[in-house]
Design goal:
The protein has 210 residues and is an alpha/beta fold. The protein is 35% helix and 18% strand. A seven-stranded mixed β-sheet has the order 1-7-6-2-5-3-4, sandwiched between helices.
Length: 210
Amino acid sequence: MSWFFYLSRGFLQVIFFLFTSLKVNGRENIPPTGPLVVVPNHMTYAEPQLIGFLVKRKMRFAAKEQLFRSKFGKTFMQALGCFPVYQGVADRKTIRLMEQYVKYGFALVIFPEGTRSQKAELIPALNGSALIAQRTGAFILPVGISGTENLQGLFWFLKRPEITVNFGKPFQLPINEYKLSRENATTVIMEHITDLLPAEYHGVYAEIEK
């Protein structure tokens, strides 16, 4: 990880603790070592920052390719430990890269929904996180984050909005994809995330829960 990553992680940690009411549950569930895929829900640009300083491991973040198109954007994103992912495209080169990150002990952060939810509730997930977890046998760490949708407006910090981050227990998917289809594996992942969120955040997965 670059010096810029650790500097920004420390800075953001101070910002969140000073200007929000941050509650973190289940940090003991974070494996300190070993193959790991971290799967949080995604509503704003704050979730990657929270994961960045709460998970004390070497990390790599999957980020949408559009953020890397300018020279500055590419340099900035890479300094933060991010790599580009083409949304909705099965890019074999990127898949191999993610497998290598997991193999060499990085905590690989993938937002299963693939984009930010605009309504502060879960939206249909893509199969990327399930694909990597099944191909590598890595443990999956589900994370439910609520309250970040309130980090809006010029003076949001004066309200010290409440943010809750729940880390669930790590679990594994069957490596043999024929034992569990990719779509069903993705649903399993999202069910674990749903269990860590208040009911109003469940979105499209509320019906599955019922």
